[in-house]
Amino acid sequence: MIKNALITGVTGQDGAYLAKLLLEKGYRVSGLVARRSSDTRWRLRELGIESELTYLDGDLADASSIQRAVIKAKPDEVYNLGAQSFVGSSWDQPITTGIVDGLGVTHLLEAIRQFSPHTRFYQASTSEMFGLIQAERQDENTPFYPRSPYGVAKLYGHWITVNYRESFGLHASSGILFNHESPLRGIEFVTRKVTDAVARIKLGKQRELRLGNIDAKRDWGFAGDYVEAMWLMLQQQKPDDYVVATGVTTTVREMCRIAFEHVELNYQDHVIIDPAFFRPAEVDVLLGNPGKAERVLGWSPKTSLESLIHMMLDADLRRVAKE
């Protein structure tokens, strides 16, 4: 029997990889798309799946459009990946971030509760909810301490998912994903900022790379691996919450070293520390413990950080060379 899936944020990095995975599994996939003047479907074209999706107009900030999308898509599974997902922008747009990343989750859950209670729901939670870490390795039982409007809004989305699961019996699960990157990541994120700059420096189009706290530590994985964990959560008999991570932490400095060495350059010759890029409230370390996902879902990451950085940098070298 063919399943129907509805993905919010389908034009983003995770949405594109997830849509590709579901199509390969034989799903009919609908994507919620807010009207924008710019081209938002380039990631879907990169993966060769743009024409294989059904697109529904809607915005997480607008409850009525969410209700219409749920009714029209008749989804067996809903994946809520739509968000204002750049941490830095959340200080400049705290209200928008709160509405989309927080209240938008309630709009989806309420639409499912009223019009499609059999639907299984996935909420994209984030390691940024841990913020000022309360344990050396963060798992499903680690207390949250968000340090940005983004983290706070996502924490609301996480807890309202738990609340609807416990109050109304919805099959609603959250994936607490640690940093996950790919060649489809937006240029504003530090991994793509690094690989794009390294490509430009190597090709003589740029001389330096300005960064903030390069000693910040993150647990980085490949988005293409992580969307499989999302799907696996909704295949379980019981809904639950899972940390999805590699279990390995690396500094931004080390990531820069890997990227520059891939093109035979020394990062110390090009990286400049710029105080303008430091966050108002820094999150110094994030390190996930994916033990539960490994044990219950049978999931584990397949891509090393070095392979991931090389993949991203090679894609940026090809792109920049064509400019």
From TrEMBL:
<dbReference type="Pfam" id="PF16363">
    <property type="entry name" value="GDP_Man_Dehyd"/>
</dbReference>
<dbReference type="GO" id="GO:0008446">
    <property type="term" value="F:GDP-mannose 4,6-dehydratase activity"/>
</dbReference>
<dbReference type="InterPro" id="IPR006368">
    <property type="entry name" value="GDP_Man_deHydtase"/>
</dbReference>
<comment type="function">
    <text>Catalyzes the conversion of GDP-D-mannose to GDP-4-dehydro-6-deoxy-D-mannose.</text>
</comment>
<comment type="similarity">
    <text>Belongs to the NAD(P)-dependent epimerase/dehydratase family. GDP-mannose 4,6-dehydratase subfamily.</text>
</comment>
<protein>
    <recommendedName>
        <fullName>GDP-mannose 4,6-dehydratase</fullName>
        <ecNumber>4.2.1.47</ecNumber>
    </recommendedName>
</protein>
<dbReference type="GO" id="GO:0042351">
    <property type="term" value="P:'de novo' GDP-L-fucose biosynthetic process"/>
</dbReference>
<dbReference type="InterPro" id="IPR036291">
    <property type="entry name" value="NAD(P)-bd_dom_sf"/>
</dbReference>
<keyword id="KW-0456">Lyase</keyword>
<dbReference type="GO" id="GO:0070401">
    <property type="term" value="F:NADP+ binding"/>
</dbReference>
<dbReference type="InterPro" id="IPR016040">
    <property type="entry name" value="NAD(P)-bd_dom"/>
</dbReference>
<keyword id="KW-0521">NADP</keyword>
<feature type="domain" description="NAD(P)-binding">
    <location>
        <begin position="6"/>
        <end position="312"/>
    </location>
</feature>
